[in-house]
Amino acid sequence: MHMETVVDVYFLPQPIEGELCVIIDVLRATTSITTALHNGAHCVYPVESKEEAFKIKEDHPDYILAGEEDGLKISGFDLGNSPFEFSEKAVKDKNIILKTSNGTVAAKMVRCSEVLAASFLNLSAVLARIKRRRKANIVCSGTLGKISLEDCLLAGFIAKNLKYGNAQARIVSGYAEGINDIYKELLKSTHAQKLIKLGFEKDIKFASQIDITNTVPIMKNGNCFSTGIIDI
Ligand code: MLT
Asked: By the 8 A CB rule, do 83 and 133 touch?
């Protein structure tokens, strides 16, 4: 029997409860998590602070420390948060502890039993996974408490294929309907402009690619993101 999934969209992180939450941080956390798992990483552990990251590393010296503070690699970490750092050579079969300013905070804040990490890279695969459920909560990470254009755009690309729950789902779908050139639109966002100043323009181009992988990062019970390969 055909079942229509109802979607609620949240513009900023909040402790949403339910069976399914979908986290979005296009620039760059969820794009990087998707890339890491696509390239064979074993598990990505999102954390909220660098102190927490160093503490986990103490117990697991073989884990890779990755992430950013103000966009840049954290001193003492192995990798930053550019998706280009999560190459197969760097991450295959490795566990990664990831600390970012917004994306990993959102992933830890939600209270859903299953949490997916969505990006343009895995859009159709994420959508296929969402459609298995009656209800989905899409949670945009934003930037330090402010709504991000790029996260709302991807939320719209997902929500426009589902049944609207709250008003935000309808609003972001309307926004996405009018956009054909993802890269051009991403460039309009405040965070993209910051990343360009920091020398990461190629990350924005990378993040704008649609459906280059069927890998869906899935975190169960707030543990770590591991790979689900979705048949679409
Ligand atoms: C974040 O979580 O705020 C972002 O991923 C920051 C970034 O690395 O661009």
From this structure: no
